[in-house]
Amino acid sequence: MRTFNTMISLTILVFFLSTGLKAQELLVKNVHILTLDDTSVKKDQTIHIKDGLIIDFYPKSNIPVGLRELVSIDGMGGYVFPGLAEMHSHIPTTDTNDFSYIEDVMWLYLANGILNVRGMIGHPSHLELKKRIEIGEITGPRIFAAGPSLNGSSVESPEIGAKMVKEQHQAGFDHLKLHPGLDMPRFLAIANTAKEVGIKFGGHVSLDVGLENSLNNGYHSVEHIDGYIEALIVDKSRLDPQIAGPFSMLLVQEADLSKLPQLVQLTLDTKAWIAPTLTLFERFFGYIPADEFRLEEDMKYMPGIQVQQWVNQKKLLENQGVLKEENVKPYLEFRQMLLKTLYDADVPILLSSDSPQVFNVPGFSIHNEIKSMHDAGMRPLDILRSGSRNVARYFDQEGDFGVLEKNASADFVLLRGNPLEDLNQLRNISGVMLRGQWINQEKLQSELNRIEKKNIRK
Q1: DSSP character at residue 353
Q2: Using an 8 Å Cβ cutoff, are 90 and 120 in contact?
Q3: Per-residue pLDDT tens for 382-414?
Q4: Which residues form a coiled coil (predicted)?
């Protein structure tokens, strides 16, 4: 009888592993757990999952008798951690019922261990995407959707700004994204209305507003570490884009660093978060030429027309002479210094690369970002926290996800090695658990193969 039961369990397990279907209750055995509370490892553990939640953890030798016949997954001595995030995504949009390209992007994220995504260029289709993922029609990371851009062109007056904030809040967006071009009256209308209705906001820093006004009036996240260089420039007439270049990159030698401690303290005092996107600037605004990036292995997962658009965007700056190494290298080093200074002061950081964006392939770009964060001086433990528990903290959902704890969402990634010892292990994924749904490496690879084949250059 026991042999028969074992055969049934194995049959269920094979079906479960091959389809990615969600089991109501299961065990993940023989894993080492990284809670990220510190750098310690809980060796030889079993994780009990039921109805999408983590129920408990057991030592390998002490699994309760009543659970031993459950469907189980053998982690084969791998390392489990809470997964990664992309907190600055440009999720593709659709005006039809065709979500196929968006679904491809979701699989690119999942195949790279990304379980949470904050969209930062909003569209109504993102609300539909979020709904379809929540009910299981589409497989994808947990989505937090910002609304359509609030900028100098879209916000024609303070009254329109306040109206747009209310409409986006009522529509169900989770966040507001601000772009440049706002003056103080329009910015204040947005900020005050957002605080009134209770929706988080952040983004780029408009020149006429400035970093200090943005922080003092409620910016929840500063994207791209924007506004800091501009706040350090004494002669504001130099901030003319024709002089300063993109993101004021040509002015780093003029920055008054004696003002930086005050700005860092203000960032702390106002409880703002930083979304660095280091890799975007290294690739889009870096001195490595477009023709080198276009040949990278990851580009095979993107439509050819998209890669060509990225080439054209970067070559435009190259042809203008903006991206010379003598211009760009000091700027990139300055950005790393800014991140390290903010990090050392305990300003909270969000893992974010900005994808899909110029030569930032969804999912894969996060690994480039992680390397850049590490090169800037961040510890592996804090980098992993920036893509897990920090995301839940940011959205006031601490303990609900992004952690390996009882009653938290069953979200985690199984790796073949310990990423706290070697961040390159983050690429060695054996499978992901997505709100109680196990997706094995074979399924993830099959989706990558499908997307690659779809985008073969003809």
Answers
A1: -
A2: yes
A3: 999 999 999 999 999 999 999 999 999 999 999
A4: none
